[in-house]
């Protein structure tokens, strides 16, 4: 099968940013197709991802336009599945360690990101639900960081870092800039905790990774802030 990759994505999605980082770290050439998540084309749902979510990828098959996907190509969705697929295809990328213990540590870190941190953000952002679960997840992740805290696991970037940094960056902007739909979310108060001494190690770890070329190219914090401001302003206009 050919090594052709097409990424169906929206640049504002932290989940799509995960895939972009993984592709860059693996030095994979790919075609990017921007999907309007508010008005998804019918062919995307019918031929790429029946659930209609981005990111999704097309792998292999003939070289055809992205909006005319071949049935001979593999279609995958869900950012963590796609990222692990890339890691398996390109083991020399180091995205997944070869050592079984280190691999287990990566899976443990990613599991906390996906099951403890990420699910708490939307209820807090939209309705002002308690932020305590978010902080608890961040503390748990910080506790897993090694002493030097350059990377989540081992001495190089892995899927643990890929899974966490884009989502944390978006969350940090929500807090730092006070960009939430619900006043009860009290993002400025949460920012004091996130930027405070109890989570200083985690913040320093993320700040160090945000300047890495693959992450800097995918995670544009200025763009994230503009997107959030527009989203919040639009939602408030329709209240």
From TrEMBL:
Domain GST N-terminal span(s) in chain numbering: 3-94
CDD domains: GST_N_family
Name of the protein in its database record: Thioredoxin-like protein
Family matches, as PANTHER family: GLUTATHIONE S-TRANSFERASE OMEGA (PTHR43968:SF6), PTHR43968
Gene3D superfamilies hit by this protein: 1.20.1050.10, Glutaredoxin
Sequence ranges assigned to domain GST C-terminal in this UniProt record: 72-228
Domain of life: Eukaryota
GO CC terms, sorted: cytoplasm
Organism: Coniophora puteana (strain RWD-64-598)
